[in-house]
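Support reply, case 0932

Customer input (verbatim):
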Amino acid sequence: MRVDVTNPLWRFRGLRGITWLFFAYLYLPIIVLIVLSFNENRLATIWSGFSTQWYGIVLGNDDIIRAATNSLIVATVATLAATLAATLAALGMAKGRFRGTDGISGLIALPLMVPEIVTAVASLLFFIMIGLRLGLTTVIIAHTVFCIPFAYLPIRARLEGMDKALGEAAADLYASDWQAFRRITLPLLWPGILSGGMLAFIISLDDFVITYFVGGAGSTTLPVYIFGMIRIGITPEVNAISSMMLIVSILFVTLSFLVGRLRR
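Our regenerated output:
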């Protein structure tokens, strides 16, 4: 039986409506959260007027600023370390196939497939076994390991799309391995590195599960702080913090997408 692939997918009855319901279910709660963050009423679910006072209260809260600072420190350090490790791994894997290539690729991608709660518990047990005190350092280590696959995939994809003849041409012109990497590979690979780095940054910035398990005293990040706030009820401050984190996330995901398009 021949299938006419020229017809649009919308020819299936009801598919358009299901698609709209899907996107409404996915994004309407986010829109409601942003709208309620401008609610003048202390009761977050009762609208009484427009106000930006809650954003001012959030920005003036020392505990929130401290948690946001911790989040930025963890995300920045983990992103730099994860991106460096991912770049080295991608360059090594791109040198050519060798025995165990598929196994190593599977190990690098494993954190993407293993439930995050398993990774968090395993990291906690590991830190306890080696006697490492829980704190900001353990959070950074756990985030670095968790973010490596997210940084690796865009870099590896960029390397796969590069013309290998460029490296051969550099060798024919008596360029050393370092010169070929610095003048040819790195400039062409840079969009993939930036894309992977921004993706790793936003994954680390928004992470809650791993941070909750491996964090100690003085290492509270913004997602963990928000979790502590909602345990006593939803307030406009929670909506305001969540909205700001959402804007940052959208910004970095958009930048990662735009930088990734440079690979084309």
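We compared this against your earlier run and they match. Two observations from our side: Residues 54-261 form a domain with the MetI-like fold fold (CATH 1.10.3720.10). DSSP finds eleven helices and no strands in the chain. Please reopen the case if you see a mismatch on your end.
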